[in-house]
Amino acid sequence: MSQINTESKEVKLSAWNVKRLSIMAIFIALSAVGALIKIPSPVGTIGMDSAPGFFSALAFGGIEGAVVISFGHLLTSAVVGFPLTIPVHLYIAFQMALWALAYRWVNKTLGLIPAVIVGIILNGVVSSFAMVPIMGMGGALGVLPFLVVGSALNVIVSAIAYKAIKGSRLI
């Protein structure tokens, strides 16, 4: 009898992993589509790739959102040939994963509007200034307005989509 219970628990765990991976794969694919929608900027890597990641963080969990948003950024960068080098884009992908986790946490603790504000500030302003050691202050200030606009579009789209289906059986 205990062997049957153990097997059914393994099947449920396995089914959850398949479902979780499938959700992440779908949203990574949406990030790939978003990577093709560019917001004109000096670096060329600002696009609509992070909206699926921010949405995933709200709807499915921080880890899911972090994975999706990281891959989304790497896909956007790959489309334009990693203009800041692969190590720098990995650094940016790591930052974006942190921003997705923060976005979810602020939504859970303070609500969606504060989460949107924090998401835009982290992804737009903090990410710009985190590039000062690499691009200098001039480079960070040069990319700042473009990154804030891109961040605002991505975060607001994710919040609207989340609000539209929150409470439904879809999530």
Give a brief outline of the structure:
The protein has 171 residues and is mainly alpha-helical. The protein is built from 6 helices and no strands.
Shape from CA axes? globular
Number of helices: 6
How many individual β-strands?
0
Output the helix-strand order.
HHHHHH
- Strand percentage: under 5%
- Supply the helix-strand structural class: mainly alpha
**Spatial gap, N to C terminus:** 34 Å
Give the fraction of residues assigned to helices: over 70%
- Low-confidence segments, ≥5 residues, pLDDT <50? none
Q: What integer value in Å does the Rg equal?
A: 17 Å
Largest sheet: none
Average pLDDT number: 90
Detailed description of the structure:
The radius of gyration is 17 Å and the shape is globular. The longest helix is centred in the N-terminal third of the chain and has 34 residues, at 2-35. The chain has helices at residues 2-35, 51-59, 62-79, 86-109, 112-129, 132-165. Helix 2 crosses helix 6 and helix 5 runs antiparallel to helix 6. It contains six helices and no strands.
